[in-house]
Amino acid sequence: MRVQLLAALAFIVVVSAGRAADQPAAGDKDKIQGTWVLVSGERDGKPIPAEVAKNVKLVFAGNKLTTVNKGRKSEATFKLDPDKNPREIDVDMDGSVGKGIYQLDDDNLKIAHGEVGDPRPKEFPEKEGSGLTVLVLKREKP
Asked: Domain 28-139, what fold?
């Protein structure tokens, strides 16, 4: 009886492990879903004023990106490429595509981008004169 119980437990462990392996690990598209609050940012190396930043949220839902600023909303679609280095994000606003890069680490998200039509940044800028916007976001807790 004891041997049968041990065999049954071993079977359950093996089957459970197999099922867990069948499920893919959550990719960046899954991890980015939710509401993100702008903590800080800069445009061309100059800080975005705190009174502006505190009103900005980005909401990722499926492949939709909604930007909320003082109750005003703008909608776009987004596409991530986590296999590039740095990771890439494209935001399509009614056919106008903005190209950026991002870093996603648990509840922290950093995005750098230029204007629509600008080339994709190759790295996060560290000085004034880059012409880029950098957003530092934190996941909003429900």
From this structure: Lipocalin (2.40.128)
